[in-house]
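User: Okay, second chain of the day. Same drill as before: sequence in, structure tokens out.
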Amino acid sequence: MTLPYQEPLVPRAPGPRTVPEPLRPGDPGGPPCRLCPVTENEHTIWSDDRWILNHGVDTSLPGAVWLGTRAHLDSFLDLPPELAAEFGGLAGRIERAILGLGGVGRVHVYRGGDGGAHFHVWFMPRPLGMLEATKMLLPLWEDVLPRASEAAIASAKAQLTSALR
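Assistant: Same drill. Structure tokens below.
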């Protein structure tokens, strides 16, 4: 694995713990959810009455998408059984569609949840042969790679839309 930074990197000590943690957008009593209401827009690839799939914006990885719930749910623990059961099938369809773009080595799946309290999962295509971006390093590389062109993002979005309809 190779970090997208020059040597020498210097380890630093973590800061003091912040307990209780600050409220995230969408937490009860916190700022409003940035995703609610979840509606289609120019980035939407696919949706139904329970899920929405949007292409990432301002990304270096054409084909990076996020799948979110229409209902305001926070984590896997909040998914009702029917949504939890649907998630696996949707994840497989999304992975196949992203692999179908070509030039993709693997599809990485990430769920952080620290930026807001609305369930969403990122699917990120690791470029074929980009072994320095394996494991947990793809998001670090995504931050420093040149941004994809509007044309590349539009092409990936069109291909994914076609594959998922």
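The longest strand covers residues 120-127.

User: Thanks, on to the next one.
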